[in-house]
Amino acid sequence: MRRTARGSCSPFTSRPITSGSPGRAGLRGGWARRMGGSTRSTVSGWWESAWLRCWRGACRMHRGNRRRWRRFRCGSAWARLRVPSFYWLMGAFLGMLLVNTAYLAWMPTLLHERFGLALSSAGFHAAIYHQVGALIGVLVGGKLSDAWLARTMLGRPLTQIVGLVLGIPFIAVLGLSGDKNVVYGALGIFGICRGLFDAALFTSLFAVMPTQVRGLATGMMISLAFLGGGFAPWLVGLLAQSHGLGPALAWSASGYGLGALCLAVALLTVYRRDAERAHSM
User: Fold this and answer.
1) Is the dihedral of CA 12, 15, 18, 23 positive or negative?
2) Structural domain of 106
């Protein structure tokens, strides 16, 4: 006599399987009415086993995703902290901002006091030559850094070093010269040199930072450099009390020297290694 689903038991749950029960039990009961007892048990066991394997696989996948996400977050933080070039590049940016902030704060005052220009005219001449030069500098610097990059991975920070080193004497000239036209020319060349640095500012950083933390690294570099650069007008003002405003502005060129030194140390020690590591990630 053919056995019915009522009274049979699942080998996994040891509970009676009824044909009228919902869900999996009802499905197994339907199979049981069409097949013999041994076949019914085989199908029931296969169904339970497959369901359990799927459930366990989903649990393992969920745990694995959680572990990978924790490693990603920790890895991002460590990647930010383990890139020495990041700190050297931030130091170079800080050095540039020390000069730029001091120039923006005090150059109109210097033109007003030294050459008797009206404040409106002093502000215009202090800005226009420098900004036009910076416009030229970023275009030339972008093209130059791309050309050097085709020869060496150090091409972009090398462009920045050239801009900083060439700008030092012209910053000194605009602070010390008594000829108005010479000061205007020095302002223009100073702007070109600043543009050379700015053209490769972020491309140099991105070359050594992993993709996952480039935005955070950019924000950290800019914020800390802005904070440090804000002290430059105060320092120049203190120095101007004893040496005069012109010499104090000339001394601010040491910020460009600091920036060039930071970049040189990075290129000679860690920049190439950090760039290769970031490229491989």
Assistant:
1) negative
2) 83-280
